[in-house]
Design goal:
The strands form six sheets. A five-stranded parallel beta sheet has the order 5-2-1-9-20. It has about 500 residues and is of the alpha/beta class. It has three domains: about 260 residues, FAD/NAD(P)-binding domain; about 110 residues, FAD/NAD(P)-binding domain (3-Layer(bba) Sandwich); about 100 residues, no CATH class. The relative contact order is 0.17. The termini are close together. Helix content is about 35%, strand content about 15%. Bound molecules: flavin-adenine dinucleotide. InterPro entries: FAD/NAD-bd_sf, HpyO/CreE_NAD-binding, L-asp_N-monooxygenase_NS-form.
């Protein structure tokens, strides 16, 4: 069997790791930390062939977020949910070992390492998986080329790389990520405009320390920009420009609670019983989870909904004070949004999905919180007045060497504008545009009505944010590991796996 993996970021690492687990016939995968209940993909001992990974970037296995950058660019989540091995919650923590101690977030009591260090973990995991696969008889290689085309040819898929070469495969997994920011205000090429902030080590070098900086967006990337500017000793004004003005929530200290009601098993059981799962069903599960813990569901919901109207600085202060609050509500929502959400989302009727989409900013803010160490810097800058939030931004334009920003509170004229808006989930990344067009015109894939690609051929697989029909929030490592495990399962149990060489 020949497998082609397009892209070498976290999704590709999760897929290689899950494939390696199958060859070793080892249910926990190579080097498992032995977390109880770790399921492996079934049944490929004896299967072998070749795996070719295509990636043009020199920073293999790190994808967009985890390449070399400033030490202030941190992972956004605690170790238990940063494991790229599906359901082995200790895999990343075991790799990190004593190195974690140097990166403890004092409020969270958890190590939050620079993203570049997390990239080393991905690199290590990919290399270990490739070694296991090779020991199991697989040929594994990396082609440092972008894939630009694809077509079905007989019972195989043929990929084309930028150098014009063709590469045939029995299975193709698209692991191309979400891509770089769009340019909604048409500012690309304007002096003083930073279209893609990463790596911040390079882009912030162009920002004069005393300049008036406007950051488009108020999500996690905007937080990265602000915190890194502060660490570089920026003295000028920093303004977060956003339509909603909503900041990410703040992580709370883990309390070791495992959801008992909001689980994939319960959602599956509801689906089997009623043939459908509604938003009310999911709310019912959360209500039951909170009731078991003796917590007030209605109060919790009211508190969440206030995100859309309450002053963001006041909320930030309250959330910093609540890092140690032992109530489980937010913790359950944060974990299950990524662990159960993608599965439940596909079962929801469209009107219920629409209802959730209307709360996109709130959902993203809760599901992808900022780490307390960054929240503390944001609070300090807001308190000193160096950082301000400007909601209700309507227009940003460049004229006569100056930026002009029109918003609810009038006009601003920043010296530098940094784009910190990531593409929405299901956007087709520019680097994979030609490939996606080729797959669509060949009929190997369809466009999902809500964006993203749906394989129309059992030999095509999509892992990551490009997967059509996926949830409306960006995938986390937890969600990507689950998708990668499912894709590995589909590949190794496909009918052609039986006749593998
Ligand atoms: C800035 C940022 C920070 C994040 N931080 C966290 C975090 O701390 N915790 C967390 O849980 N989640 C985080 N996420 C979400 C998620 O973990 C990441 O988005 C994750 O890295 C996605 O992995 P991926 O492999 O799907 O995509 P990517 O990491 O984007 O990798 C895709 C790869 O595909 C390659 N590619 C694209 N097109 C082609 C082509 N045509 N041919 C060949 N190769 C191609 C690209 O060069 C790239 O290397 C973050 C996301 C972003 C954007």
């Amino acid at each position: 069997m020949e497998i082609a993996i397009v892209g070498a970021g976290a999704a590709a690492v999760g897929l290689l790791d899950a494939l390696a687990a199958t060859t070793a016939g080892n249910p926990g995968g190579p080097g498992t930390t032995g977390t109880p209940g770790t399921p492996g993909t079934s049944g490929t001992s004896g299967t072998s062939g070749s795996i070719t990974v295509f990636e043009p970037s020199p920073h293999l296995w790190r994808g967009r977020p985890y390449g070399p950058d400033l030490d202030t660019v941190l992972v956004n989540a605690p170790p238990a949910i940063m494991s790229i091995r599906y359901q082995d919650f200790g895999h990343y923590e075991a790799w990190l070992g004593t190195r974690g101690a140097a990166h403890l977030d004092p409020a969270l009591g958890q190590p939050l390492v620079p993203r570049a260090l997390y990239g080393e973990y991905l690199e290590h995991t990919a290399e270990a998986a490739m070694a296991t696969l090779r020991a199991g008889g697989w040929r594994v290689r990396v082609v440092t080329q972008r894939v630009t085309g694809a077509a079905r040819s007989g019972d195989r898929l043929s990929l084309q790389t930028e150098d014009g070469r063709a590469h045939d495969a029995d299975h193709v997994a698209l692991c191309v990520g979400g891509g770089t920011p769009q340019d909604p205000y048409g500012l690309d090429g304007t002096p003083g405009f930073v279209g893609d902030p990463y790596p911040l080590a390079r882009t912030l070098g162009q920002v004069p320390p005393g300049s008036d900086v406007a950051v488009i967006g108020s999500g996690l990337t905007a937080v990265d920009v602000v915190v890194s500017l502060a660490a570089r000793g920026h003295t000028g004004q920093i303004t977060l420009l956003s339509r909603s003005g909503v900041l990410p929530h703040v992580w709370q200290r883990p309390v070791g609670h495992r959801p008992q009601q909001v689980t994939a098993e319960r959602v599956g059981a509801l689906h089997r019983k009623h043939g459908v799962v509604t938003l009310e069903d999911l709310i019912g599960l959360l209500r039951a989870e909170l009731a078991e813990a003796g917590e007030d569901f209605d109060g919790f919901v009211a508190e969440l909904l206030a995100t859309e109207t309450e002053d963001p600085a006041r909320r930030l202060r309250a959330q910093l004070a609540a890092v140690d609050d032992s109530r489980i509500g937010r913790r359950v929502l944060q974990e299950t949004a990524h662990a159960v959400g993608p599965y439940a989302w596909r079962l929801l009727p469209e009107p219920d999905r629409l209802r959730l989409r209307r709360h996109f900013r709130l959902a993203t803010s809760v599901a992808s919180p900022m780490v307390p160490v960054n929240a503390a810097v944001m609070m300090r800058l807001l308190d000193s007045g160096q950082l301000v939030l400007a909601p209700g931004v309507r227009k940003i334009e460049a004229a006569n060497g100056q930026f002009r920003v029109q918003g609810d509170d009038g006009e601003r004229t920043p010296d530098v504008v940094v784009n910190a808006m990531n593409p929405p989930p299901r956007a087709i990344p520019r680097a994979a545009g030609q490939l996606a067009t080729a797959l669509l015109s060949d009929g190997a894939a369809d466009l999902h009505p809500s964006g993203g690609l749906l394989p129309a051929d059992p030999r095509l697989h999509v892992v990551g944010d490009l997967a059509g029909g996926g949830p409306f929030i960006t995938s986390s490592i937890l969600g990507i590991a689950a998708q990668a495990s499912r894709a590995a399962q589909a590949i190794v149990t496909a009918p052609d796996a039986a006749r593998a060489t």
